[in-house]
Amino acid sequence: MCCRCGCTQHTQACLPQITDRGLLALTAGCPSLRVLNLERLNKLTDASVVSLGFCCHKLRSLNLAGCVSRVESLTSCGVR
User: Fold this and answer.
1) Which of 25, 40, 56, 63 is deepest in the core (most CB within 10 A)?
2) Neighbours of 52 (CB within 10 A)
3) pLDDT value at 50 more than 70
4) In this structure, what is the dihedral angle of CA atoms 69, 43, 39, 36, given to the nearest 10 degrees?
């Protein structure tokens, strides 16, 4: 994972292999995130996005562009 600002406010996850478990660890350890780029990560599910809502109350920008939608994967339900 690439942490651009020491996990304080801006983070870009740039490993295509990151899973829900990795993102859960990131969000739990970085509750002050304001900007998160998850572009083209294809192993995330709705659980990841829901965890962002619970853990990262300051999040203002979330990039999910190019995330592959598969069965039991990332859907619009997780973003609501």
Assistant:
1) 56
2) 20
3) yes
4) 120
